[in-house]
């Protein structure tokens, strides 16, 4: 046990300095996170007295685990239910914030003559606010339960999702050097498909498994199971070329639907705190104070741009979606900083070797400055609103007031909620089932090369191998195909009912209605078949075999129709149960 | 973030298998620890289908952190107060167990023709029972609150301390190839000195610092501070050539005196569980099932030896220290297994490259078997006692009964508890203060080479450097030297009072008493000076300078006498306060 002294020394240095500096920062009433970063700078290679860390690579690896635990905790706090509640406002505000900030960042980077990739990454770095800092600041100020705080949390959730999409897009752009619209759509489509399917399958499987383990009453087994799922899912995600951050966030969101959410949060908190401390210290380790002096001017400009840009974009977005001026101002002031996500994006740039070395310290410096200002900005929101409304000309104020009223009147008058709601719901269900079918065929195609090798022991002809794989995918997706057919049929019936009125169709009314409700599903299923064939191109058997497979499938379907309906229904019920179950206090 | 996939994969494999197998083992009502080991065997390199771990070295390093957290938790549960309560019985039982088991192990190893070092390590491996397994088994059987369980926990605490001494001794033997009595005494003396001083200084400093941090109410900062102290102290211990296990145990025992013990235990539990899971999995990774078949015969013999040997040694030790037959049998049956400490000793042998490769798997196999038997043995204790007492001849039973009575009568009649108690207490205080003085001089000698370099900037002559260092040590140890002098004086007074009776000394009584109480301390201080001179050989200045330093010191002492007395008193009060403070619930 005498080897690995260097590792113990590194951990001792990191933890001891982190503890001492954060306690000092706490006395100075500054956020803990800044203390970690400062500790990292002190023990880092760029500051005297000397290099205290032996094996920076090991510490970086542990820091990456810190990112994983941070994103996992974010996921645990994410809740589909909460998202549905604040919905519209959060989406409008987050979208306008991200679009504007990416643009501002890109323009500033270009104005300073930085490379296109640096400018693009700067935009991404500025886009997303820091959940950690905001939660800390709001609870310090005692504002966590206010209405605007709920809105801010909604915005942060949407930002997290969009941020993850951004990570995926940036990786794509960095690897291909460009962003074609088609590629972006395909990339985001694949991401959406992956997220939907993982959430669905995950929520069906993981909370049940954890409930089973939790019933033993052993915290140890529950923790190890949670970690097993977490690392396992992250591994799957990494193998599919997405980031660990995405995997950790998704599996966290899946576990957020477990009944034992609070126990899991308790067990994970120490691991998250320990490893995220290491992560924030590694940020300080990478920070070269000399670079900060060289880039003092850009840092000042960017800091100002973050504060004003976020206030305007997010505040205006909130206001445009129908909130009053005071709430909008408070929301805008609260999100006026960048944090952990920015570090993740900045280190992505470094890892992919597409950004310059100065971008990382600049991002850290801007984050530190904006973090320092956050509590003061939040407190300044109300006075600023009052001063603005006093200074505003009366006609202006009237127009703003009328806009709010019009928006609210619009919302109550958005007629026929029943038909509209029903249609939306059926379409959503069809989309979800189609996503599952697509995922099954894509998954089988993905695994085809290795499955083919296995099959080669019994089947020589490649065409036969394909036929077997394709049939397997077809059988597995049968319950979902049946569901798609049935939902399409009820949608067609509903639409026929509404659109074909006796007044115009006369005595053919019911005939036409029946024709529509029979025809539409069949046409749709042909479309579904074409879609599936396109997705599973690499394992689609030749025409002859394909027809044989389809005929067999049709026979099987006739036999198993009722079983398919039943299994789909029970899955749907299980999903709904998991969703509607409240977490134990 | 796309590098380090191998590391994530390793963690995913370890955690997922650990979770699955332990849940299965829990269903089969077997201990979790066995599940971890089984998971390790499955994913290990010796079993099909294939090697699942990429970078065994990284996983081993994390496993070492698991040992650290395990020993740290043991330390947190260790309590000087609890130890004082069960005192005598625990010490007698643990000592007889360890001595007998080391001897049995050594004899078995020699009988199988193994090398001397293998036989010795086997003895050490068999010596110490598994706290984890025992706590688990007793709480499963609902016996944790019984009186014999308290005794068992006391025995385990003593075993932990003796086990750590054994680790140190084994390291010494392995490095020098032999055990000379003198070396053993010096090694154990140094260990005792180091433990006493760290406990004293640690209990004065660490709980106070943690209380300060805990008052912020932030679990995150408390955790990081705990980890900072833990890793920092382990680093110090490793630099002094002791093991991380010792360091973690000691710092745990120090923190056990903190008022926030329960909060600390809560925060550390997930880290301990996660990393110790990795540790136990790495034990399985190292296990080659083929070796187990080759060594089936020794494994069977050793398993039987562990069960019978521990039952006899520990049970008899308990009985001889005055417990009744039923309690003794229960204690003996409970400790009849080996566990985590055995793995630590076995891996020490591997690390030091003095034991053969087969010893580790043999130790694991014996641990697995004895762990499996533990719950059945505990339950068999009472029936066995009854059968034995029925089968025992009446005269035998009478002798046993009389032994117990005689022991109990002895205890109440062990006259003059006041004088005896007072003497013992003063001697203890003198010993503690002497230990501190010795530690100060040893510490300064240890740091002399680097301090000398620093001093060389101002002082060229080596003799002067020594004089400065020696004076510094003398000044720092002054309060403790004064305390030694004063305690010796009061001891001498006390003894003079008792031994010199007016009946024999007549009218010289008070004169002789005064002479003794003045003479003894002065003679003792000369002895202390010789001791210090011997310990600080490398920094002892030449005679001329030494006399000068001593004269200066005497002058300083005359000036600062009262201050020395005061500072020592306040340290003593602070220590007592920390001890007497109860942990928050």
TrEMBL record, chains A, B:
Against InterPro entries, the record matches this protein to:
Cation/H_exchanger_TM, Na+/solute_symporter_sf
Q: Which family does it belong to?
A: Belongs to the monovalent cation:proton antiporter 2 (CPA2) transporter (TC 2.A.37) family.
- Keyword annotations of the record: Membrane, Transmembrane, Transmembrane helix, Transport
Topology within the bilayer: Multi-pass membrane protein
Protein name per Swiss-Prot or TrEMBL: Sodium/hydrogen exchanger
GO MF entries: antiporter activity
All residue ranges annotated as the Cation/H+ exchanger transmembrane domain in the record: 17-377
Species the sequence originates in: Paraburkholderia ribeironis
Do you know which PANTHER family this protein is assigned to?
Answer: SODIUM/HYDROGEN EXCHANGER FAMILY/TRKA DOMAIN PROTEIN (PTHR42751), SODIUM_GLUTAMATE SYMPORTER (PTHR42751:SF3)
Organism superkingdom: Bacteria
Localization terms from the record: Membrane
Q: Which residues cross the membrane?
A: 6-25, 32-53, 59-76, 83-104, 119-139, 151-173, 179-209, 221-238, 274-293, 299-319, 358-378, 426-447, 467-485, 519-539, 545-565
GO CC terms: membrane
Q: Does the keyword Signal apply?
A: no
Please give a single GO biological process term from the UniProt record: proton transmembrane transport
């Amino acid at each position: 046990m005498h080897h690995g002294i260097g590792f113990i020394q590194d951990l001792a240095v990191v933890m001891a300095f982190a503890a001492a500096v954060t306690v000092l920062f706490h006395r100075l009433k500054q956020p803990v996170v800044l203390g970690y970063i400062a500790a990292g700078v002190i023990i880092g290679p760029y500051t005297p007295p000397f290099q205290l860390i032996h094996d920076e690579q090991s510490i970086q690896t542990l820091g990456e685990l810190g990112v994983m635990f941070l994103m996992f905790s974010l996921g645990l706090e994410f809740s589909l239910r909460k998202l549905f509640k604040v919905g519209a406002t959060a989406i409008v505000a987050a979208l306008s914030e991200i679009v504007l900030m990416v643009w501002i960042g890109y323009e500033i980077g270009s104005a300073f003559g930085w490379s296109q990739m640096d400018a693009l990454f700067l935009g991404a770095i500025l886009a997303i606010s820091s959940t950690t800092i905001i939660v800390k600041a709001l609870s310090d100020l005692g504002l966590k339960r206010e209405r605007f705080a709920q809105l801010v949390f909604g915005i942060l959730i949407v930002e997290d999702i969009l941020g993850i999409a951004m990570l995926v897009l940036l990786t794509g752009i960095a690897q291909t050097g460009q962003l074609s619209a088609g590629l972006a759509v395909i990339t985001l489509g694949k991401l959406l498909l992956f997220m939907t399917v993982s959430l669905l399958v995950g929520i069906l499987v993981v909370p049940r498994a954890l409930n089973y383990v939790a019933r033993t009453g052993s915290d140890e087994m529950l923790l190890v199971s949670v970690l097993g799922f977490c690392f396992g899912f992250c591994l799957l995600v990494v193998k599919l070329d997405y980031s660990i951050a995405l995997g950790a966030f998704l599996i966290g969101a899946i576990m957020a639907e477990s009944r034992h959410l609070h126990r899991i949060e308790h067990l994970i908190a120490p691991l998250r705190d320990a490893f995220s401390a290491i992560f924030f210290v590694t940020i300080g380790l990478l920070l070269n104070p000399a670079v900060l002096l060289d880039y003092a001017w850009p840092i000042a400009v960017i800091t100002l741009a973050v504060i004003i840009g976020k206030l305007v974009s997010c505040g205006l977005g909130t206001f445009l979606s129908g909130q009053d001026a005071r709430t909008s101002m408070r929301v805008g002031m609260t999100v006026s900083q960048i944090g952990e996500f920015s570090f993740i994006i900045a280190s992505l740039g470094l890892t992919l070797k597409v950004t310059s070395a100065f971008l990382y310290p600049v991002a850290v410096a801007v984050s530190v400055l904006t973090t320092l200002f956050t509590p003061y900005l939040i407190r300044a929101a109300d006075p600023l609103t009052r001063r603005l409304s006093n200074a505003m000309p009366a006609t202006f104020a009237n127009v703003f007031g009328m806009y709010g009223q019009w928006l609210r009147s619009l919302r109550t008058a958005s007629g026929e909620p029943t038909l509209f709601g029903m249609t939306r719901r059926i379409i959503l269900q069809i989309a979800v089932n189609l996503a599952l079918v697509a995922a099954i065929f894509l998954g089988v195609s993905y695994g085809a090369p290795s499955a083919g090798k296995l099959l080669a022991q019994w089947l020589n002809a490649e065409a036969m191998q394909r036929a077997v794989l394709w049939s397997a995918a077809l059988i597995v997706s049968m319950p979902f195909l049946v569901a798609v057919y049935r939902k399409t049929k009820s949608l067609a019936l509903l639409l026929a009912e509404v659109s074909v009125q006796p007044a115009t169709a006369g005595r053919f009314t019911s005939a036409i209605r029946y024709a529509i409700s029979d025809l539409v599903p069949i046409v749709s299923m042909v479309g579904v078949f074409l879609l599936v064939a396109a997705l599973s191109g690499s394992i689609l058997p030749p025409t002859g075999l394909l027809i044989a497979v389809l005929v067999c499938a049709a026979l099987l379907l006739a036999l198993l129709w009722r079983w398919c309906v039943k299994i789909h229904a029970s899955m749907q019920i299980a999903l709904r149960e998991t969703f509607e179950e409240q977490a134990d206090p």
